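Show me any protein, fold above all:
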Amino acid sequence: MPRVYSFPMNHRPSAISHQLFDWDQVDDVLLDMDGTLLDRHFDNFFFEEELPRRYAAKHGLAVEEASERLLTMYRAVEGELNWTDLNYWSKTLEIDVVALTKELEHLITCHPDAVEFLRHLRARGKRVHVLTNAHAAGVEIKIARTRIDRYVDRIVNAFEVGHLKTRPEYWPTCQRLLGFEPSRSLYVDDDEACLAAAQQYGIGYLYHRSKSSSRLPAQPSSRYVSIESLHALITP
C-alpha cells in the first residue's frame, strides 16, 4: 500500500520552470554528491560489480548468484538509511565495506565540470551545500580524495538528518540545519525521487543531472529540466 504524506501548509509544491532562472533570485545552492558532483561510475562499479565478486569469493558462489542475492538485499532496504549505511553492509555481508571503499578510492573522481561550477558559485557569493544520502564513512573517503569541501559551506549526510532525501521528512530537518529559504534555493540531483520530495517541499529551482556516470549515456528526465553538464547553469 503506497503511503501518503502531508506537508507543512507554508510549503507548496514548486512549479517546474523550463526557462533560465535569475541568479539574483537564488541564495542557496543545494547539490547532490554522487552522480551530480562526483562520477557515479565508482558507486555503480563498487556495488554492482566488485562487491558481488568479493561476496561470491567469500561464500563460494558464482558471481551471477552473488549479484542476484545482493540485489535482493539492496531492494529490501531501499529508501531506508540502511540502504547506504556502510556499517550495516559490512555486518550483513561479513565484508569490511569501508576498507574496500578505501582500497578502491583511486576510482573516485569528480565530474569534469564540478570544480568549475563550484568556483562559479563561490564567485557569485552563493551559499553552497552538498546534500548526500551517503554514509559518513564513505563521504569522508570521497571528500579526502576529491577535496570538494574546499568550495562548499557544508556537507550534510542523510544520517545527520535521519532520513534519505527521497523522504518528505528529510527536507524540514535539512532546512533547520542549513537555514535556507526553499523558494530561493536551487537544487541539482540525478535522482528523480529526491527531486520530487524537494519539489513537494517547495524548493524553488530544480534541475536533473542526466549524465551521472561517465560510462553510461545520459538519461534525461521526463519530469524535470535535465542538464547533461553543470556548465548549463554557468551564466555570465
